Amino acid sequence: MFEQEGYRKLEKECIRTGLCFECGACELVCPNGALKLKKYPWFRNPELVADCVKNNCTRCYDACAAAQVPLSEIEKRFFGRTRPHLFPGKSPDLPCEHDEDKTGIVRSFYTGFSTDPEIYEQAVSGGISTSILVHALQSGMIDGAVLAGFDPETPYEAKACVATTREEILRCAGSKYQPHPQLPGIRDALKLGLKNIAVTATPCTVLSLRKMMLQDEFDELTSCIRLVIGNICGAHWSRHGTEDLIENWTGVPLSEVKELKYRARPFPGEFQVRTKNGDLNIRSFVNGGGLGQLAKYTPEECRYCLEKAASAADIVVGDTWHHPVLCPTKLDGYTEEDLKRDERIAHARQGMTAVVVRSEAGQRFVDAAIAANAVKLYPETEEGWRAFLCAVHDEGKPKCNGPVIHARLVRKQPVREYF
Question: What is the pLDDT of residues 356-373, one digit of tens each?
Answer without folding.
Answer: 999 999 999 999 999 999
